[in-house]
Write a structure and sequence with these properties.
By secondary structure, the chain is of the alpha/beta class. It is built from 21 helices and 20 strands. The protein is 36% helix and 15% strand. Helix 13 (400-410) crosses helix 14, helix 13 (400-410) packs across helix 20 (550-567) and helix 18 packs across helix 21 (586-595). The longest helix is centred in the last third of the chain and has 18 residues, at 550-567.
Length: 604
Amino acid sequence: MELTDARPEIADAEPVAASGPPRPVSAVDHFLDSLHAEGVDAVFGVPGGHISALTQALRRQQRVRYFIANHEAGAAFMADGYARSGGKLGVCTVTAGPGATNAITGVASAQLDNVPLLLLSGQTATDRFGQSAIQESTSENGINTVEMLRHCTASSTLVSDVRSFPRLLARAMRTAHSKPAGAVHLCLPANIGNQPIPAGTKIPPVSATRHAHNVCVEETRAVLNMIRRAKRPLLYLGSGAREAMPGLHEALSQFIETHCLPTVTSVRGKGLLDEDHPLSLGVYGIGGSSRADRYLEHGVDLLVVIGSRLGEWSSKGFSAALHAIPTLVQVDLKLANIGQTRPAQVPIVAEAGAFLRTLISLARDLQAPAPDARRFEEIAQLQSLPRPQEQPIEDDTLKPQHVMRELNRVLRADTDLYVDMGNCTAWAANYLCVRPPARIFIPCGLSSMGWSCGAVIGGKIARPERRAVSLVGDGAFLMNGSEIGVAAKYGIGTVTIILQDNYLGTVNHGERASADRAYSIDDPYYSLGTLDLEAFSRALGARSHAVRRPSQLWPCLADAFERAEADKQPQVVVAHIDHRVCPPYGDRFSSVSKAAGGGPPGAA
C-alpha cells in the first residue's frame, strides 16, 4: 500500500493571520517548524557564532529540544543514535570551519550505515566570502566544507539565498529518508538564518512520501522454489532488513521452520532473528559464530542474502567458503550493492521488507515441503555444541567473557545495546545472545571508535522508555567519553560499560598475532598508561562503579540499571579486565596480516 502525505503539495511560507499583514517567518524558524512537523523533537550540536541565529531560535521555543554536546563528533553520534533508536531523522547543528570538519566522522558513519541524518553547518556571511573571515570555509578561503561533506553524504549543499532555503531543506530531508537512507548536509551562511522568507515564496511539504517498493512476484516465486529444492540452503539477514523485522518476526520464524532454513545474520544485523531460535546459527562474519562457520565448511548450495553488501565484516574477511557457494541470491534496494564482493547469480533490486512479505505470502499458498530429516539432524548437532557463553572460565581474574555472560542477563526485552568498535565488537558478536525485541546497534560501516558514547545518549532521548546501554573499550571511551557529561547535565539515565585493560587491545593483539608472537603481550608500546576512569566519570557527573572480580559484576550491573532509571543519572561500570585475553578476531588478524604482506619473521 502506498503511504502519501496528506498535506497539500504546495503551502504558503507564512501563516495567514485573522487580520493584518502575515507574520514573516525566518529561515531558522522555518527549519524548526519543519522538524516539528516531521516529529523530530531533539537537535544535537555545539553552538558557535555562525549558527547563532539558530541557537537563538531554539531558545525561543520548546517543541524541539537542544542538546549541547562537548564535541561535534559526539553531537553527530548522538543524532545517529537518535535516528537508529527512534526511526526519525537525526539532526546535528555545528558552526563553520572546525565545527563542520569535527562532525565529518559522525556524519560519514551515518551515511555508510544508511542512517537518516541531517547536518546543518554554519558559514560566514555571503558578503564576506573570500575575505578570510574567521572560520570561513569556502573555496575562496581554501577549505570548502560543502565539498568535503559531498564525499561522505548523499547530498551537500550551500544555501545561497533565503528564498531557496525551504526547497533545499525539503529536498535534503527527503534524500535522508530515501531508500536506502543516508546523511545529508546543508550549509547556512550567518546572514541568511534570520532573514524572513519572502512573501509569496512557495514552500514544498517536507514529509517524505514513503512508497512500498514493487517486488517482482515471478522473481520471488523463483527464489522460493530454489529454497524448496536446495539441499543445503542458508538465509542471510543483513542490516538492510532491520526496518522490516518488527512486523515480520513471527511470520519469518514460521517460514524458516516450515522450510528448515538455517539462518545467519551479519554483525550489524545481529539480533534480527532470535538467536535462541533452533534454526539460528548466529552471526556470520568477523568475530562471528562457530556454528555458522561449521555449516558453511560442509558446503552450501544456495545462499539467499537480504540487505547486506557482503563487505569485509559480513563476509568474514571475504572468505573462501562464501565464494565457493554456487548460487547466490542477493536482495538489496541499491543495485550498486549487489555483486560488490562476488557475483550474484540471482540479483534482485527490492526493499527487504517488501521482498520478505511477498516470499512469505507465496509460501502460504503452497503445500509445506517434506521435512528434511538429515538437515534437521545436522542443525540439531550444531546447536548442541557448547556456545562461547556456556564454556567455563576457570580462574577468578575478571575477563571479557565474564562481562559478556552477565550482559546476557541484562538484555531483556526493553534493552537497547550500543556496541562500540574494538575488541568489544568481537566479544559482543560472538558471546551475546540477542532476543527481539531487545535490540543491538553496531556501527560497522565506518567502524568509528567512540561512536557508542554519543549514540547511547541520542538513543535514550529518542526512546526514553527503553534501557540504553553502551559497551565500549577504554581506548574508544577516551575519544568521546566526555559526552557522559552531556547525559549528566540533561538528566539522561544511560549505562556505559567500559572494558578497561589499559591497552589499545585490538592493535596490541593484532600486531602480536601477525608478527607470530614476536612481541610480548605485556609490551607497553600500546599501553594507555594508568587510567582512573572511575574518577573521570564522576568528574563528568556520572555515578561510577568499579568491578575487579567476576562475583562483583551482576550486583554492580543490577545497581547501575536501577539507579539510571530512578535517578536519571548516567552510570559508568568500569570492568577491569585481563588484557592478555585475545578477542575472537583470528580471521580479522589474519586478513590484515595478509593484506599488509605480513607473516612470521622470515616468511616469503
